[in-house]
# Entry
Amino acid sequence: MQEIIKINQNEQGETRVSARELHKELGVKKRFSAWFEQYQEMYVEGTDFTGVPGGTPVIGGNGNVQYLQDYSLTVDMAKNVAMMSKTEKSQQIRDYFIGVEDRYKKLANDPSYQMALGLKASQLLLDQKDQIIAEMKPKALFADAVDASESSILIGQLAKTLRQNGVNIGQNRLFKWLREHEYLGSRGEQYNLPTQKSMDLRVMETKTRTVNNPDGSIRTTHTTKITGKGQIYFINKFLSEKENVA
# Structure
């Protein structure tokens, strides 16, 4: 089949057509922006068409390259727009798109083609394995935190979890960091107890218990704990911001 308009594939393997090239091949007299505006509202941006970042390079009469506004269209949208434009080449271009679609469907069902795609995807995974592992590490830790989110933990336990995942921090330094960032009180009776900020965020809670002293008096103790939501909050905060406070 003779190529009339170039058909591109995006990263998802979807076939796409340049709106500017379609405009040119159809022989539309109206300027590009006005022509495209006629059809823009009939379709869904992000699904049927997307803007081309930076535009499309076009060589002018003097040899200079200009980057002009363009859109990437699905073949279905391009086919319909071609017919609605009603030029001498509308039918020819529509038939061309139908032929291209048939060819891609046959390829998609070809076992050899599917195997080639699988091999290419495997090679890409191998080439990018280090990057993938780095990106997945915070997600894995996030999942661990979600699993543990039903129960509160001590601040020392949070420090241990962070150290196991590459954040260089100990229990004392974590307490200090939490005070400096106003998650814990830093003086007086509120020392190491959750601040109003922590309570509003629901990342900490206080466990209170009473203890009977040998002399018969009763003593009240307060223990600060990290809530399930707080575990997720602090883990992602340290990893995403690469906090290293040892």
User: Anything to note?
Assistant: The two ends are 65 Å apart (CA to CA). The mean pLDDT is 80. Residues 132-240 form one domain.
